[in-house]
Amino acid sequence: MNASRCLFGSASLGEIANLAGGCYSQGNILSSAEMYNSETQKWETLPRMNKPRKMCSGVFLYKKFYVIGGTGGVGKDLRVLTCGEEYDLEIKKWTEIPHEALFFKQRSNMRVKRSLEYIDYAFVS
């Protein structure tokens, strides 16, 4: 890992593992992201996310890396993030997924399942 961090979102796909966000031990929230390739045993620094976030969730879906939710802000202005971001491995770019896109299909307490259904429908087709 190029930058030591904790409370980050991560997921793996085949020989690669991505991690994004998190914070330093002093509490500074990060927008940086990295990818590890187990075949080459090397870390690659990815472009920064649009928003710094910690305590977020990461998942790969159709060869794209998604970071959802978490906490963002600076100092005492911490807030829950209800948006997400999508990293396209081919074009090496983050795209913000607004709150409305993640939760408009929400019913009952199945937020993550519904969010992923929407991502599957809207961003992969």
From TrEMBL:
InterPro entries: F-box/Kelch-repeat (IPR052439), Kelch-typ_b-propeller (IPR015915), Kelch_1 (IPR006652). Keywords: Kelch repeat, Repeat. Signal peptide: none annotated. Coiled coil: none annotated. GO terms for cellular component: nucleus. This is F-box/kelch-repeat protein. It comes from Hibiscus syriacus (Rose of Sharon). The lineage of its organism: Eukaryota, Viridiplantae, Streptophyta, Embryophyta, Tracheophyta.
